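Researcher: Next sequence.
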Amino acid sequence: MTPIQKFLRAAGSLLCLGFLHISAMSAAATAAPEEPAARKVFRYAFLVAETGFDPAQISDTYSLTVTPHIFEALYSYDYLARPVKAKPLTAAAMPEVSADFKTWTIKIQPGIYFTEHPAFKGQKRELVAADYVYSFKRFADPALKSPMWNTVDEWGVSGLAALRLSALNGKRAFDAKQPIEGLRALDRYTLQIKLDQPRPRLLEQLARSDLFGAVAWEVAEMYGRDTMEHPVGTGPFVLKEWRRSSRMVFEKNPGYRERFYDAEPNADDAEGQALAARFKGRRIPMIDRVEIAIIEENQPRWLSFLNREHDFLERLPPDFVNVAIPHGKLAPNLAKQGMQLSRVLAADSAFTFFNMEDPTVGGYSAEKVALRRALSLAIDVEGEIRRVRRGQAIIAQSLMLPHTSGYSASYKSSMGDYSPARANALLDLYGYVDRDGDGWRDMPDGSPLVIEVANQPDALSRQYDELWQRNLNAVRIKARFMHGKWPEQLKMARAGKLMLWYLGTVAAAPDGLPALQRLYGPQAGNQNLGRFKHAEFDALYDRLQLMPDGPEREALFLQAKRIQAALMPMKTHVHRLVSDISQPWLIGYRRPLFRYDFWQYLDIDTARQPAAR
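Model: Next structure:
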C-alpha cells in the first residue's frame, strides 16, 4: 500500500467514525437489520512443508497435523484430560474386547456423513463399518507404498498380510474388497477386528485420526494416484485451497454433525477446569476457517506473529527465547498485550540416526560401534541446548519419550555423556588415526574418514551445521554437509542414501513401544530410517507388543534402552521444552500431549482482533 493509499484509508476511517458519532442517536431510534457475525479465521505457520493428505501415504509431522482435522478415527483423546484418556469419536461406545485381546468389536454411530463430494453422485454418503475395513486395508496396498504399512502389519490383522502378499506375488492390483477374516463389517454399523496375536493397546491406534480416519472408497477410486491432493473425510474441516509447500486453507465442514465441546480435566487442573467451564456445551468447531502458511525461516515467522498477521506461534523459535520468554515466563511487554504462553515438556525427542548400511558409519563390528560411540561422545548436547535451543530442552538418555511408558526421568546412560577426551581415546584405540599427516583422522584401512551430515538450507539448520563442525573438529574428523528440502531428505533417508540425519519425532499415544520402531528391524526404511537390525532388540520389541502394561514390561524397555546405548545406532540428543504463544483473541488453546488435533477446540474473540488483517 502506497503512502497516499494509507492516508486515504485513514481519512476514510476517520470520516466513518465521525459519521457514526453524529448519527448515533438516530441509529439507536431506528431499527436496523443485524449484521452477520464476523468470520472466525485462525491463521498460523508451519516451519516445515507438508507432503500431502492421504493418511495411507504420509508419516511426516506436518501432514499428520492436518489430517486429523479432515478424517476421523473411531476414537480420540479427551482434549483436556491429563493423563490422556481415550473416548469415542465416531464409535458409539468403547470397544468390546475379548479376554485374550485378539477380537475387538466396535459399534459405529449412525448418522455420520462424509463431506459432500462429486464422487458420491449427489447422494449423502453415510459412514459405515465397511469404510474402516476399507481404510485399514489401504495400508496393505503395495501400489500406495505406505510408509506406515509396517505399523499396521504389526497389528497382526488375520489375513491382511496374506492379501498384500497375494497382490505382490501375483503382480496384480490389490483387491481391497476381497473379504478377510481379520476385518469384517458384521452389519452396517458393527466393525470386527480379529488379530493373530494379543494387542492390549490397539485402542491407542484406533484413536489416531491422523492415520486411521475413515476414507471413502468412492473418493479413493475416483482420484487413483492423486489422493494426496484430495482428502475427503467426515471431520470438522475441509480442504479449500492448497499451494504445495506454500499455503493451505481449510474451512468448517458445513455438513458436520452436531458435536459439542465435552472434556474432563482433573479436579486439580485449574487451567483445564477453566476451559471446560467456558466451553462446555458449545458446538464444535467454533472457528470458520484455518489458513496455514509455510515459513521455514525463524525471523519472518516470528515477525509475522508480532505483526498480528498470525494468531498463534507454534514452537517459539530458539532465536527469540530470551526476548519472548526470559526465565521461562512471558516477557512483560507481551503479557501486557494479553498474549498467552503454553509451555510443556513435549512427548518428543530430537535424534541423529546413523545409516547402519553405510560403509563409513554403519555395521556391527567393534570398530564401527566404536566410531558411532565416539561421535556420540563428541556431540556437545549441553552446548546445543544453550547456544541453539536457548535452554528449551533437556538432555535425553534414551530414545524413549516423556509421558509414555518406558520413559523414566531418573534413568541415566552414556547416551547423555559429552567427552571429547573419551571420544579421541576410542578413535585412537580402534585405528581411526591420521595416517597421511594432513591433521585429520582416517579410516582404519587408511582411506579418508569423512562424516556427511544431511541438513536443511535454513538459518536454524546452519546453526546446527556450526555445532557439528565444532564437535567434529574437536576429534579431528572431517565433515561434509549435504543440504536439501525436508521432504526430499526424507525420501533419501527412506531409500538409505543418507549417512546420518538429525530430526525429531513426536509420540502419537501413551505407549512407548512406537518409539522403539526407530530401531526395529522389520521397520527398516520406514520408521527405522537407520536400518538397524538386531535379533535381541527385535525379540524384545515382539515381547513388548504382546505384554500388558506393568513392571515386567518396563524391565524389557530398560533392556532395549541399554542396547541403544551400547551399539549407538542412533544418538538421542534432547527432549524439547515447547513454548507456544497465542494472541489475546485466540481462546482455548492447549497443546495436546500426543498428535496435534486441536483446531476444533479453539475460539476467536473477533472484537479483540486488529481491525484490518
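Model: The radius of gyration is 26 Å. The longest helix spans residues 3-22.
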